[in-house]
Amino acid sequence: MSIFETLESEVRSYSRGWPTVFDRAQGSWLYAEDGKAYLDFFAGAGALNYGHNNPVLKKALIDYISRDGVTHALDMYTVAKRDFLETLNDVILKPREMDYKVIFPGPGGANAVEAALKLARKVTGKESVINFTNAFHGMTLGALSVTGNSMKRGGAGIPLVHATPMPYDKYFDGAYPDFLYFERLLEDSGSGLNEPAAVIVESVQGEGGINAARIEWLQGLAELCKRHNILLILDDVQMGCGRTGPFFSFEEAGIEPDMICLSKSIGGYGLPLAITLVRPDLDVWSPGEHNGTFRGINPAFVTATEALRTYWRDDELEKSTKAKGERVGAVFNELVEAHPDANLVAKGRGLARGLEFPSGEVAGKVCAAAFDRGLLMETSGPDGEVVKLLPALTTTDAEVEQGLEIIKNCVESVLSR
């Protein structure tokens, strides 16, 4: 591994927790070059909802490349883009009676967020954006300005402005009514709060510690935004594409965001793709006003289309994801009950699950013990205090049980020291 340590930047992170060289991957498994198998409960930080090298998506990709299908086309019309747009509309948007235009902002989630923030400011003529405590929206400057983590914000090197944080759901543990502070500032002409162009929110905060907002909190936020003519941006980059069960993580709340950010698993295969969905009346861009070289990588359109056709024409994957998530949640609750003095907290929704420990040190030890036993997990939360699970939605029931057994052993081992 010396070449990585010699030549690669010190900014690398995941490789420090998983010090091995991976060579192959299939389904829910990664294989190191020495042949050791690792059960992957990380899934590319949520970019691999359908697993590694999913055979159905792989065939579509290989067939497309083999026939010399277009790879790079800026924002030109291609057959692959047309197939994706038609399938997105027919399989996802129309059945949910959703009316949105599609922006291809660039290859990653931060690009989708940047496009939403930029458009919200253009539409409203206002600069300020409301974000929430413990939010994470990306590492570019605009996305960082609405991110909560102080370490990530500190990397910007310049002041991060035009964003005001508000308390996320349960931030005060129910001590105050929802949005008491937010609404008071909005209605008080002496509060000093600049009139916001938009609110940006995750329905489940992934990097922030698997904080799942209550349905009624999301509904209250949407109502507040409508009442005060504030645009609502829903960042579904990590929690969309079925991670919590439904295709969109906010579906159960019945809300209608003005903009929706998607990336990670929208490409299906782990290939770079991001989209920003916007209400048609908000699509006021001039041609080329927001552009970039990699606004639509056609092989990603191919695998994205195949994923939608294969997994989202019925509700089987949604049901399976919810059932597996409930199983993980049940085991986490058992661990909480088994260790009443350890101050553990079970968190999450669907197959976005977390187990909170008293400190990042303890959570890190659990993840390290899991790696030694052949299971990949990461930590999240402001101090890395939450063990975070994002297994592929296609992970089998047997693999879920295998991973949970490892987790139980790791928790017992670490807490008994």
UniProtKB/TrEMBL annotation:
GO terms for molecular function: diaminobutyrate-2-oxoglutarate transaminase activity; diaminobutyrate-pyruvate transaminase activity; pyridoxal phosphate binding. InterPro entries: Aminotrans_3, Aminotrans_3_PPA_site, Dat, Ectoine_EctB, PyrdxlP-dep_Trfase, PyrdxlP-dep_Trfase_major, PyrdxlP-dep_Trfase_small. Its EC number is 2.6.1.76. Its cofactor is pyridoxal 5'-phosphate. SUPFAM superfamilies: PLP-dependent transferases. GO terms for biological process: ectoine biosynthetic process. Pathway: Amine and polyamine biosynthesis; ectoine biosynthesis; L-ectoine from L-aspartate 4-semialdehyde: step 1/3. NCBIfam families: dat, ectoine_ectB, PRK09264.1. Belongs to the class-III pyridoxal-phosphate-dependent aminotransferase family. This is Diaminobutyrate--2-oxoglutarate transaminase. The lineage of its organism: Bacteria, Bacillati, Actinomycetota, Actinomycetes, Pseudonocardiales.
